[in-house]
Design brief:
The complex is a heterodimer of chains A (346) and B (100).
Chain A lengths: L3 E4 L5 H13 L10 E6 L5 E8 L2 E7 L8 H15 L6 E5 L3 H5 L4 E6 L3 E5 L4 H10 L7 E6 L6 H13 L2 E6 L9 H11 L6 E5 L11 H4 L4 H22 L1 E7 L5 H16 L3 E5 L3 E2 L2 E2 L2 H9 L3 H5 L4 H7 L5 H9 L7
Parallel strand pairs in A: 4-5, 8-9, 8-11, 9-10, 11-12
Antiparallel strand pairs in A: 1-2, 2-3, 3-4, 5-7, 6-7, 13-14
Helix pairs in contact in A: 4-8, 6-12, 8-9, 10-13
Chain B lengths: L6 E3 L7 E7 L4 E7 L2 H18 L5 E7 L4 H15 L15
Parallel strand pairs in B: 3-4
Antiparallel strand pairs in B: 1-2, 2-4
Classes of the chains: A alpha/beta (346), B alpha+beta (100).
Chain lengths: 346, 100
């Protein structure tokens, strides 16, 4: 008997039907966002093992129950890691069912988070997550500390309002800016606008969120459209990791802006309100700042920029952000927002 | 040899090893996981370090996931990963010798 490992091409309906059937037999539903899938076929062209990637994550693994224990998973993981290496990705993550963790531990992966004994999250660098937490611990301050995580796409008066509130109620605020470069406003600009926008608040420390907070690895559905159940799963995983990050900074609360429109952020907030107390953190949901009866949000600002209503956008952002938006430097970003089909977070 | 970019060689299949080399932060940093760690961990480590030394690699982060590879396999995988990382794998390489 000889098996062959092949790429599953997007047009190969027959192969995809086999992938879905195999995943289903193992109790897994195929993720909506995958960028590569491979499979091992036996002599009779029956699919006996499969695995996929999305960016730097490996996921959707299954091996036919009749063919388990032959090392097929090793072959699939080898192939996927080699492919990731070809596109320059070496720091890899694995999503898998908790009961499969032991197989991945044998393949050089280390578990860093687990969700309710069902889902496990691993990475291939043994000290990376610990180094990340140790790095954060250096900016730990005594007293009451809180965290805020924001994309700030771009930084508005609404963000500023949230930060001010947290800064008033805590000795220290650790402000994480999403470092994943998936937004219309690029990370270096978002970072600059946030750090300038809070520069006068002495007890606010800014951090780059890195790979462990709302990244394409922990929370892919934050950046790409997916179903509610998937979003919720990702949110739980993200918060399980946050539970390990919080002690490094001695956090006692996380502040979030109330979410009236975006489905993803709304779901994330709801899961946070449930999960954070279990981690010993309070979840403070702050009602949005309103101007003229409407909530101030970055989505609104992007919409106004998109529609060319710059003077109205100006009303919703701090002077530091406006200074940037009005500068020649901002031209390519403004152009990208104007040309974007969808400027509002789903 | 200077590690210019990250590169990988080998597989996770039985009797093989997957070796990844990445630019280091001053010195050799070796991360080894092996299915035969208790029996051969020290020997595997020595073989990998020796091969790196022969190739005059002084600054690298090296990750080895070993699935029971023989010494010759380990050496070949380390060499291959190092050559790939400095763009030498397309050249005519005297495998097993030190390449400058």
């Amino acid at each position: 008997m000889s098996d062959t490992l092949e790429t599953i091409n997007s047009w190969d309906k027959r192969a995809w039907a086999q992938v879905d059937a195999l995943l289903e037999r193992e109790g897994i539903r195929r993720d909506g966002n995958l960028d590569y899938t491979c499979g091992i076929f036996d002599d009779d062209r029956r699919l006996v093992a499969t695995g996929s990637t999305f960016r730097n994550t490996l996921r959707c693994f299954a091996v036919d129950s009749a063919r388990q224990g032959e090392g097929l998973l090793n072959e699939v993981v080898s192939h996927l890691t080699a492919r990731e290496a070809e596109r320059g990705l070496f720091h890899l993550f694995v999503y898998t069912k908790a009961k499969s963790v032991k197989f991945f531990k044998d393949l050089g992966f280390y578990e860093i988070a687990r969700v309710e004994d069902t889902l496990s999250f691993l990475e291939n660098r043994p000290r990376s997550f610990k180094n990340y937490c140790d790095g954060l611990a250096k900016s730990r301050r005594p007293g009451r500390s809180a965290a805020i995580v924001m994309n700030a796409n771009p930084f508005t008066l609404g963000h500023r309002y949230l930060v001010e509130r947290a800064a008033r109620e805590n000795d220290t605020v650790h402000l994480f800016v999403l470092s994943e470069d998936e937004s219309l406003v690029p990370f270096d600009v978002r970072w600059k606008l946030v750090t300038r926008g809070v520069a006068d608040l002495e007890n606010v420390i800014c951090h780059k969120s890195g790979p462990y907070i709302i990244s394409a690895a922990t929370f892919p559905s934050y950046f790409l459209r997916d179903e509610a159940a998937v979003i919720e799963g990702h949110a739980r995983l993200d918060l399980a990791l946050f539970g390990s990050i919080a002690p490094a900074l001695g956090l006692s609360a996380r502040y979030v802006g109330e979410e009236p429109t975006s489905q993803v952020t709304g779901l994330y907030n709801r899961v946070m309100a449930q999960e954070l107390p279990k981690l010993g953190l309070s979840c403070v949901i702050v009602p949005r700042l309103e101007t003229g009866g409407a909530a101030v949000s970055a989505s609104t600002v992007r919409r106004l920029i998109h529609d060319g209503r710059m003077e109205e956008a100006r009303e919703l952002v701090p002077a530091t952000t406006w200074e940037y938006l009005a500068s020649p430097e901002a031209a390519p970003v403004l152009e990208a927002i104007r040309r974007a089909g969808e400027v509002v977070h789903y | 040899m200077e590690i210019l970019r990250s590169a990988m060689a080998g597989t996770l299949e039985s009797s093989d090893a997957q070796v990844t080399v990445e630019p280091g932060e001053g010195g050799i940093e070796l991360e080894l996981s092996s299915s035969v760690m208790n029996q051969y961990g020290r020997q595997i480590k020595a073989t990998v370090l020796e091969t790196l030394e022969r190739l005059e690699v002084k600054d690298a982060r090296v990750t080895v996931v070993d699935k029971g590879a023989l010494d010759c396999t380990l050496k070949a995988r380390v060499e291959c990963a190092v050559f790939r990382s400095c763009g030498k794998s397309a050249e005519n390489i005297p495998w097993g010798g030190a390449v400058r």
